[in-house]
Amino acid sequence: MSAVAKLLAIREQALAGPSAAATEAQHARGKLTARERVGLLLDEGSFNEVEPLRRHRATGFGLEAEKPYTDGVITGWGTVHGRRRARPGR
After folding, report:
1. In the chain, which stretches have pLDDT less than 50?
2. H/E/C letters for each residue in 48-74?
3. Collapsing DSSP states into helix, strand and coil, what is residue 39?
4. What is the pLDDT of residue 30?
5. Is the pTM of this model over 0.85?
6. CA distance 55 to 69
7. Contact at 8 Å (CB) between 53 and 69?
8. CA-closest candidate to residue 76, choices 32, 19, 14, 27
């Protein structure tokens, strides 16, 4: 597998979330995943994510065994109704 193919597979895994079970558990509680909420808030295709492949470095409580990509924290920017940001003072 080429390096590009590996990177694309990792990116796909990051976008899918930690696991199907985690997504199902979130939905069972009546909640959306973080990516689903971002998708509803921002204009389609406008979200630019910062460091989508970032992993935590926490230890203890078994956290070192599971290191999902983005780990529920999603940072980036996008547009809402075509606007990039609010204008100060308006």
Report:
1. none
2. EEECCCCCCCCCCCCHHHCCCCCCCCC
3. helix
4. 97
5. no
6. 5
7. yes
8. 14
**Among 1, 2, 38, 3, which Cα is nearest to 17's?**
38
What pLDDT sits at residue 31? 95
d(CA 63, CA 56): 9
Q: How many CA within 13 A on the CB side of residue 73?
A: 8
Res 25: pLDDT: 93
In whole angstroms, give the CA distance from residue 83 to residue 89: 15
**What is the phi/psi pair of residue 49, to 5°?**
-85, 145
For 24-34, b where at least 16 C-beta lie within 10 A, e where not — what string?
A: eebeeeeeebe
